[in-house]
Design goal:
The protein is an alpha+beta fold. The protein contains two helices and eight strands.
């Protein structure tokens, strides 16, 4: 009977530690963003790409490599890509060309995966019209401004339909964060064209 109380304390400590481990990244990113906004601290607008294809969203300090030509319909393929960065949907356009460049990443599919998968788009909902998005692709920097954002059903694939009338950048993540119920889509257009 003497071991029941220490075992209870140990199990409580493990439970509290597990909850902290699960939610610490979420609390960290939300708190850091809120403090930076309330104190008027702007993200560093300059950055140096470290790979051939990268994305940078200054307002939310999202910076990640882009994995090109990922089959968005193959869960195994895109989960593998999302562990390394942001995925570019295969079969569409690329930065600097007419058409839709479609980039997607986790907000996280559940708290257990926050540390396992790249959650670079976790704060995507904080973007507002006019916020900058930068892409480095094959030696060139491309600058975009967010026009609007939409919440779509998970089955809504309208932005996957190829179009070649204009250059458009789409960023997509799960919505609300930590679920796969819907999709948050950010639509951006080029600044320097």
């Amino acid at each position: 009977m003497k071991w029941i109380i220490p075992l209870g304390f140990l199990m409580s400590a493990i439970g509290i530690g597990g909850i902290l481990w699960l939610y610490a990244p979420v609390v960290y990113y939300q708190t850091r963003y809120a403090l930076r906004q309330s104190w008027g601290i702007l993200a560093n607008p300059s950055w140096q790409a470290t790979g051939d294809y990268m994305i940078f969203v200054p307002k939310i300090e999202a910076r990640a490599p882009v994995i090109p030509q990922v089959n968005a319909g193959d869960q195994k393929e895109y989960f593998k890509a999302l562990k390394r960065g942001v995925a570019e949907a295969a079969g569409l356009s690329v930065p600097g060309r007419r058409g839709t460049t479609y980039l997607f990443a986790h907000s996280t599919d559940n708290p257990l995966n926050f540390s396992r998968y790249n959650a670079v788009f976790y704060l995507l909902d904080k973007l507002e019209a006019g916020d900058r998005i930068e892409i480095y692709y094959k030696g060139n920097y491309y600058h975009y401004a967010m026009e609007k954002k939409e919440v779509l059903e998970a089955s809504d694939l309208r932005y996957f339909i190829p179009q070649y009338q204009e250059e458009r950048l789409i960023l997509q993540t799960c919505w609300p964060p930590g679920t796969t119920k819907k999709r948050l889509v950010v639509i951006a257009t080029p600044l320097d064209r």
